[in-house]
Write a structure and sequence with these properties.
heterotetramer; C: alpha/beta; Alpha-Beta Plaits; Rossmann fold; five-stranded parallel β-sheet; three-stranded antiparallel β-sheet; 9 helices; 15% strand; globular; D: 1% strand
Chain lengths: 657, 499, 261, 326
């Protein structure tokens, strides 16, 4: 009886917490939307207690973009979570997780509404802490713990660097107080920095906070932490927490340290392009579904940085202000878009994992027929992330592409020369992403099941289905209304000094004097109309269609083993980029002589994780060596190390104040 | 000292009793010794010896000496497999197992050859075709590609099972038998009115090759010889068959790499050569031409003159058409270093015909074991050393040239006389092995007669039987999209293998 | 590149004008046999035995030749009384019904076009999947040759396609071995209707030289319904082309046009 | 109705009309390529209208769906046909008016990518090895083709200091050609190089030699057709039409996007007539060019396809350098 009661109580707590979350996030989202639309914030909202603004906090258009993204995905996640928590075993209990989640959401909101560096940094640290707990929520296997530690360590090292950047700006002030760390004061200080100091601030901010954003080569924690976390946490991690990294980079480097020199725009473009390309390339080689999605986060962060970087680089070119605004808007819009479709994909991946308990694509197959809702929603997400019209990914990618093409008209030689390469790079990224998602959808969801688990897959319950459907719908709506969304996002440039010169005559058509014209709405309408017409015209033949075994050259029947595997699907691409991947294969070949007949032959292909091998491994061993030197007075255990960083952080803060 | 194998010559009938009957070890040693001295196994087959026993006959061919050797041994349920030491016999041993239920002990890869019903009444049929246990390369990323028996092109049925990773082929297993019509079984007890038709349809594109081998066999058993004019016409027909098929193959190779000019010209020229055969006998494949005792159709002077003219024109055109292949870099890029078979593999497994000559092995029965017209008029052996698709294409092109010269020479100097002679009775209790160089390679017919001179066993070894393994090996580590090209470069017979 | 075009000029234009012109065929070609019952008066029973596939028979005292079994070897020309059976170089041999192939001295009822809906659907575009069901590769080769420039099958809207799903019918060669039976059934089932089956060669029609073998099934009709029979061993490519064109109604129509003129 | 509404309605009508006409003509264009190819081999070849007969037949035939397939299998032909049709409506062809509402070339390419996405999925849906083989190859080809396409378009837009809008390119080209006739002229090196790069992409995207062999029967060597092996009846007709339309769309980008000579800039019947004739002539020229290419070179080994596209990428880069230099 008591057990039953306890379970009912737990369930009730989880559900009511979810409802509260939905309400709170709805408020935050409305707030963000209002802010972007240029209206005053409504009387109750974030960064307010009642009608009073909390000191050191406040929403501006840049933060509003992330807040809006958080609301968009937080609500479906809240709907998704209860059923997910009910269905799993072990790990943190449901109520505890459900209690941690609002805390995490709160700290995220604190980060994006902070108007004071101290608030920002405290919020940031708390966000990291809560996120770590939630990453650990689902298990205590070594790999999960390792992932969490990697996340914490990298996050903290990054934070330290970022903090130094903030402190450099603040160091111009005669006194350090809470008020002197207000953004307003920092902006004034920032304006007077010397070129060298500014450069140091920009680079430190990018490296420090960019770690959280997962820019290459600081991305290595992402593919470890995402698969380890429960899927809705992965969704939040990729959807918003990573974006907070971008947000803080933009805030510190582009806002507080203004005016931003031109070269930093180019740096951002370079970082963006390399993250985009490397992210998608590693994603292609992945056959762990969640790791694959995590690598795509790296890619999309890259795209976002490209947009922001182009905005920065063009903002100083006369005559191209509207293009700069478009580029920035595209980048910020992509923050929202990526949040939406990545959350969608992670939730769907979670649903798949919940039913077949596997993340390996090679063990899946035929899931669309077993899980039509989840499969279809995943397809929408896959189409969106691949930039397929008329979904939201298309709108932001297309806008960025147009901005890049238009920037070839810049009088600035660098940008003009780089623009076509960037166009090609972005196109390559898009094409690779499409190839990757053809794989990520096609291999697990189509064809025949490749394992017993996959054969017995079942559709998830109503809650998760609704959450997924909501996000899929959001992909569509954001795509169709992208001109409107772009105009709103352009306002996010205001705090960065990239003024929103973007106006479209219609909320459905993107056009301008320097860019081409497109209309996801018209495309959607036309493609849908023709599809419907054709579908209706040919419905008779489909209704009469005969179901038959696939053609296997006259053999009895097709076997699952005859389907392409995930790794085989991208083999050709792997070979082209072999210098990057360094693919190798372990073969246990034929036994015995002569070699003409074989008895047993086992093979396993792999790629070399270049960054881990050549960047981090030496680093780690160097640290180990230093730690060994210090063996006499400090324990080298990771936990203590963690503790020490926290202490160092607190000391630094205290000293700063 | 064990009894030596019986030395004999091509198409020479000898009493079965003269063939030494060896013990297990002796049989094995004799074959291994001979192979180490340069011989290869042309045929190895079983023949029921009564009392539940099976007598294995082995035909060893020594290309350098031009001699054949026969040996045999009696087995009951099993015998020591030779396949590990002499890989060339692995298919023969599997065949023996399938036909007679006698197990080659220690065979590394004992699978059905053609899924045929056993020749012994009590034997159980092998497993169902197409659902066999195919070799699997393990590893989660490996997948299979199954092709056949119904292929995309207009070709014979066979099943190919690739173990792949994307474009890469780890392993190819070839499973044949779809064409099995039971010809060898039906040939026993002959010759009768259907025999020559069985022979002519063993492999439809090698009608002349098999028919010549068969007729030489019968003539040897009868102790007679066909007239000289018939030999010349047989030679012409044999080389026309080679011309037509080689030309067709070159065109097909061009077609497989999507190179249209040569593909279309060769497609047409192949027809021209076939039509020249039809001009001689009315059938494009030479059906009804070669008959025991000679040939059924004469080539009159007028016909010969016309043929010479047609040949000259076709030869000029084929030179132009094939020349394009070697001069087009995009074609050569596809041909070179594709589907390579090393000379060592070739020698170990005993490939024959174009496949062997393209590995640099100068093996050609027209030169090594000449019969008929080839005793008097020699055709040079064409080889190339690279063992790849290019080599097999290039050797074909060279042979087209030399065959054209041979035909032209024969047409200009046809011996006078009749074309058909009546054959005397066949000798009883004889064995005869005949090797003829068909266009694919060595066609081997072995006939054993009973006490009335009828066939108690008629064994046919199509050149394809030796070479199929070569195709499987050529594909290892290749790209799967090159398979059609490799396959065409070997162009092996399915029905010749499946009989 | 230049060489390619020079060679093209030299190779010349080779497509036969069939069916507008009669093809030039070898004088020794053994095509349509003609039976003269009168020559059999002196007794044909002895000669009949020489037929390797028992295509020859006596029914009601009349000589009968089943083209579906005939290998066109010409043996009967030699063993029967002179002129009882005479092979002409006429290549037109195909028939729509199996029984039409049995000659008793009457004119061969050549194949007519597909009827009704089948003709409307397939009359102007016919894609075929070839199934080699135990053939010796001669029929296959002579089908293959139809796609060369000489016969240029494509100009009639006929094409050999890779997938049975894209096909409108199957073209069967070979006697249908036991090992190929399933594959043939599978292929037939894989073709979307309406579909046709074309049996090419003596093997595919009756089993050819392998009639009676337990390893084979006696041709395509024993497994699938056949719409067009093209006899021969192997049939001359012109015979096959003629059969296909008749099936599509392309030759009949040409005749009609001639009549109008 | 206001002027601008009228304008956009008229623009939509023109676009719809163009879409219908181009989709209707697409089989003819391929018929022409096949005919020329046949002539180059000295054969008669299939009738020009054979594609229409094939398609008409397919609409009357039975549909078969493979047992493992999901709704993707049914949807892919429809989506690919719809996207190709919309692309045909938007692609540069006969007229270029600033206000027709015809979109830009980049959108056209994205639309085609959407169709391709579905077709590639359909290849995986039937669970057969050939489908997977075709899908994997097609995905790889598209990965390397798309950047080249975008780069060459960007080069043209950048060189003309305009956008990738159809009208933008056309107007800038015609203006420029009239104005200077030199560096912005129709035969400027950058334009020729960019067009060449794009043309190579067209060959790759449309499964033509040297990337694919449209005439092959061999599953193992196929790229595009391998994905479609399971389709039959109306579905096959739709995917066939879609790929033919895609070919025409891409070729019309070459014809009227890269060389917008003769493109009508007003809606006067005479101008449209001339523009139509010029367009048809340009397409016919491209068809002959494709036929010649297919008759003169062999198909490359599949894993060499990226190399060829890499060369195309180099050419597009060169175009860019050429534009900077001259």
């Amino acid at each position: 009886m008591s057990a039953l009661l306890r379970r009912a109580w737990a369930r009730g707590a989880v559900v009511s917490s979810a409802i509260l979350q939905v309400i709170a996030l709805a408020v935050a989202g409305t707030d963000g939307a209002f802010c972007l639309a240029g209206y005053d914030a409504p009387p109750i909202g974030i960064a307010h207690v009642g009608a009073t603004r909390i000191p050191g906090m406040g929403l501006d258009p840049l933060g509003a973009v992330v807040a809006f993204a958080l609301a968009l995905i937080g609500i479906p996640i809240a709907i998704y979570t209860p059923a997910y928590l009910a269905g799993r075993h072990g790990g943190l209990s449901g109520p505890v997780q459900q209690a941690l989640l609002p805390l995490l959401l709160g700290t995220i909101l604190a980060v994006v509404t902070a108007q004071n560096a101290l608030v920002l940094l405290v919020g940031w640290e708390l966000m990291t802490a809560f996120a770590t707990f939630l990453v650990l929520a689902d298990g205590h296997q070594d790999e999960v713990r390792r992932a969490a530690i990697l996340y914490v360590v990298m996050s903290h090292v990054g934070t330290l660097l970022g903090m130094v950047a903030v402190l450099i700006i603040a160091s111009g002030s005669p006194v350090l107080s809470f008020d002197s760390l207000d953004f307003e004061s920092l902006r004034i200080l920032g304006r007077d920095m010397g070129a060298g100091t500014r450069a140091a601030v920009l680079v430190l901010a990018l490296v420090g906070f960019g770690t959280k954003a997962g820019i290459v080569p600081l991305h290595v924690w992402l593919p470890e932490a995402h698969p380890a976390a429960p899927s809705h946490i992965s969704a939040l991690l990729s959807g918003v927490i990573v974006k907070c990294g971008i947000y803080v980079v933009a805030r510190v480097a582009l806002d507080l340290a203004r005016p931003v020199p031109f070269w930093f725009g180019i740096v951002l473009l370079g970082v963006g392009l390399s993250s985009a390309l490397l992210g998608v390339l590693y994603a292609l080689m992945e056959h762990d579904l969640k790791r694959l999605l995590a690598f795509h986060t790296v890619e999309n962060v890259g795209i976002i940085f490209m947009g922001i970087g182009l905005g920065v680089a063009l903002s100083q070119t006369r005559g191209l202000e509207s293009v700069a605004s478009l580029a920035l808007a595209a980048g910020l819009f992509h923050i929202i878009n990526h949040a939406v479709f990545k959350a969608l994909l992670f939730l769907c991946a979670g649903s798949v994992h919940a039913t077949i308990h596997d993340r390996n694509l090679e063990e899946m197959g035929g899931l669309l027929r077993k899980m039509p809702w989840t499969g279809t929603c995943f397809l929408v997400g896959a189409l969106a992330i691949s930039g397929m019209p008329p979904l939201n990914g298309f709108a932001s990618e297309w806008s960025l592409l147009q901005a890049l093409i238009a920037s070839a008209q810049s009088s600035e030689g660098w940008i003009r020369r780089l623009a076509p390469l960037l166009v090609a790079g972005l196109a390559l990224t898009g094409a690779l992403a499409a190839a990757c998602f053809v794989k990520a959808f096609g291999i697990p969801f189509l064809g025949l099941p490749r394992s017993e688990h996959a054969r017995h897959a079942r559709e998830v319950s109503l809650g998760p289905r609704a959450a997924q459907a909501l996000l899929a719908l959001a992909c569509f709506v954001l795509g169709v209304l992208s001109p409107l969304a772009l105009m709103l996002c352009a306002r996010g440039g205001e705090p960065l000094g990239i003024l929103p010169y973007l106006t479209f005559d219609s909320p459905f058509i993107i056009s301008g004097s320097k860019i081409a014209t497109t209309s996801p709405f018209v495309l959607a309408a036309a493609v849908t109309a023709i599809s419907l017409a054709v579908a209706i015209a040919t419905r008779g033949s489909r209704a009469r269609a005969r179901v038959a075994e696939p053609w296997v050259c006259g053999l009895e029947r097709v076997q699952p083993r005859m389907q392409y595997t995930a790794s085989a699907f991208t083999k050709a691409i792997r070979l082209v980029f072999r210098n990057l991947f360094r693919p190798s294969r372990e073969v246990e070949p034929a036994e015995g002589t002569p070699p003409y007949y074989v008895r047993r032959w086992r093979t396993q292909g792999m790629i070399l994780p270049v960054f881990e091998r050549y960047l981090y491994d030496p680093l780690v061993s160097a640290v180990r060596r230093i730690a060994a030197l210090m063996d006499g007075w400090a324990s080298p255990s990771t936990e203590v190390g963690l503790f020490l960083t926290l202490v160092a952080f607190c000391v630094a803060l205290w000293w700063a104040l | 000292m064990s009894p030596a194998p019986l030395e004999t010559r091509n198409a020479q009938a000898v009493p079965i009793a003269d063939v030494p009957d060896l013990g297990d070890e002796e049989f094995r040693d004799a074959i291994l010794t001979a192979v180490s001295l340069g011989s290869r196994v042309s045929a190895l087959f079983g023949h029921p010896a009564g009392e539940g026993k099976l007598r294995l006959f082995c035909v060893l061919a020594n290309d350098e000496l031009g001699s054949l050797a026969l040996l045999s041994r009696q087995v009951e349920r099993r015998f020591m497999s030779l396949a590990n030491d002499c890989p060339g016999v692995h298919l023969f041993e599997r065949e023996i197992f399938e036909q007679w239920g006698v197990e080659p002990h220690g065979h590394p890869w004992l699978k059905p050859v053609r899924f045929q019903p056993p020749l012994v009444a009590a034997g159980a049929r092998a497993s169902q075709i197409g659902v066999a246990n195919f070799f699997r390369v393990e590893g989660e990323e490996v997948h299979e590609v199954a092709v056949g028996p119904v292929h995309a092109g207009v070709i014979e049925p066979g099943h190919f099972r690739f173990q792949c990773h994307g474009e890469d082929v780890f392993h190819l297993e070839i499973s044949l038998g779809y064409q099995h019509r039971g010809v060898e079984r039906a040939l026993a007890g002959g010759p009768d009115k259907r025999t020559i038709h069985y022979i002519e349809t063993l492999a439809g594109d090698t009608t002349i090759g098999h028919a010549v081998a068969h007729c030489e066999t019968l003539e040897a058993l009868a102790g007679a010889e066909a007239p000289a004019r018939a030999h010349a016409i047989r030679g012409i027909a044999l080389e026309l068959e080679r011309l037509a098929n080689h030309t067709g193959d070159l065109g097909a190779l061009a077609n497989d790499v999507g190179y249209l000019p040569t593909a279309s010209y060769c497609g047409r020229l192949r027809g021209d050569f076939l039509n020249m055969t039809a001009a001689i006998c009315g059938s494009r494949f030479g059906r009804g031409l070669v008959r025991p005792g000679g040939v059924a159709f004469d080539v009159e002077p007028a016909r010969s003159a016309e043929l010479q003219g047609r040949l000259a024109r076709a030869m000029r055109d084929i030179r132009g058409a094939t020349g394009l292949l070697w001069e087009t870099p995009s074609v050569m890029a596809r041909f070179e270093e594709t589907g390579t078979v090393t000379r060592e593999t070739c020698e170990k497994l005993g490939f024959v015909g174009v496949a062997a000559r393209a590995c640099g092995v100068g093996r050609d029965a027209r030169q090594d074991f000449p019969l008929g017209m080839f005793r008097f008029s020699q055709v040079p052996v064409m080889t190339w050393h690279t063992g790849d698709v290019f080599a097999r294409a290039f050797v074909r092109a060279l042979e087209v040239e030399s065959s054209g010269k041979f035909i032209d020479g024969q047409l200009k100097a046809l011996p006078a006389g009749p074309v058909l002679a009546a054959l005397p009775e066949r000798a009883p209790d004889r064995i005869v092995a005949t090797l003829v160089e068909g266009w694919r390679g060595e066609v081997c017919h072995v006939a054993l007669t009973d006490e009335r001179g009828r066939f108690s066993r008629y064994k046919v070894v199509d050149p394809s039987f030796h070479n199929w393994t070569g195709l499987a090996l050529a594909l290892r580590g290749q790209q799967i999209s090159d398979f059609p090209l490799c396959n065409k470069s070997f162009n092996l017979s399915y029905c010749g293998h499946d009989l | 590149m230049l060489k390619v075009f020079l060679e093209r000029l030299r190779q010349g234009y080779r497509t036969s004008a069939y069916p507008l012109e009669e093809p030039k065929l070898p004088d020794r070609l053994r095509g349509l046999p003609v039976i003269d019952q009168a020559k059999c008066a002196s007794g044909c029973e002895a000669g009949i035995e020489s037929c390797p596939t028992s295509a020859l028979g006596m029914k009601d005292g009349k000589l009968e030749l089943d083209l579906g079994r005939c290998l066109f070897c010409g043996e009967c020309e030699r063993t029967l009384p002179d002129g009882a059976v005479r092979f002409t170089p006429d290549h037109k041999l195909s028939a729509r019904r199996r029984e039409d192939l049995v000659l008793r001295g009457q004119e061969l009822a050549l194949a007519g076009a597909l009827e009704g809906e089948m003709h409307r659907v397939l009359g102007r575009s016919l894609k075929l999947r070839q199934v080699s069901a135990g053939g010796c590769n001669a029929c296959e080769a002579d089908v293959n040759v139809l796609t060369t420039i000489v016969f240029d099958l494509g100009r009639f809207g006929i094409q050999i396609v890779a997938s049975p799903r894209h096909a409108d019918g199957i073209l069967v060669t070979g006697p249908v071995t036991e090992n190929m039976k399933l594959a043939l059934e599978k292929t037939y089932a894989a073709v979307p209707s309406p579909k046709v089956v074309i049996a090419v060669g003596a093997c595919a029609i009756s089993g050819g030289p392998y009639i009676g073998h337990p390893e084979v099934h006696g041709g395509a009709p024993s497994v699938v319904p056949v719409d067009l029979f093209i006899p021969g061993c192997p049939p001359h490519p012109m015979t096959i082309l003629d059969g296909l064109l008749r099936l599509m109604g392309k030759i009949e129509r040409k005749r009609a046009a001639e009549v109008v003129e | 109705m206001s002027d601008s509404t009228l304008e956009s309605v008229r623009g939509a009508l023109i676009a719809a009309l163009q879409g219908i006409v181009l989709v209707a003509l697409a089989p003819l264009l391929n018929g022409l390529i096949r005919k020329v190819k046949a002539r180059l081999q000295r054969r008669i070849g299939p009738p020009l209208l054979q594609h229409y007969r094939d398609v008409a037949k397919l609409f009357r035939k039975e549909s078969i769906r493979p047992s493992p397939a999901s709704w993707i299998f049914d949807a892919a032909p429809i989506v690919s046909f719809a996207t190709a049709s919309v692309a045909a409506a938007l692609t540069p062809a006969i007229c270029a008016l600033p206000a027709t509402g015809q979109g830009d070339v980049v959108t056209v390419i994205y639309l085609l990518a959407l169709g391709r996405f579905f077709v590639i999925l359909a290849g995986l849906d039937a669970a057969s090895s050939f489908g997977g083989l075709g899908s994997s190859r097609d995905a790889a080809v598209s990965v390397f083709a798309e950047p080249v396409a975008m780069l060459s378009l960007a080069v043209v837009a950048a060189a003309l200091r305009t956008t990738t809008d159809v009208s933008g390119i056309s107007l800038a080209s015609t203006d420029a050609a009239v104005a200077s006739g030199t560096s912005l002229g129709l035969l400027a090196p950058w334009r020729l190089l960019a067009a060449l790069a794009f043309f190579i992409v067209v060959l790759a995207e449309c499964a033509r030699v040297p990337f694919d062999n449209p005439a092959t029967h061999l599953e193992l060597t196929m790229v595009h057709e391998a994905m479609l092996l399971e389709y039959s009846g109306p579905s096959l007709a739709l995917v066939t039409l879609a790929s033919l339309a895609k070919q025409l769309v891409l070729l019309s980008i070459v014809a009227s996007g890269f060389f917008p000579v003769g493109v009508a800039t007003s809606l006067q019947p005479a101008a449209l007539l001339v523009a139509g004739a010029v367009f048809v002539a340009k397409l016919a020229g491209l068809a002959v060019l494709i036929a010649i290419v297919e008759s003169a070179i062999a198909k490359v080994r599949f894993l060499r396809v990226p190399d060829y596209l890499g060369v195309a990428f180099g050419i597009a880069l060169l175009a860019y350098v050429a534009r900077e230099a001259f």
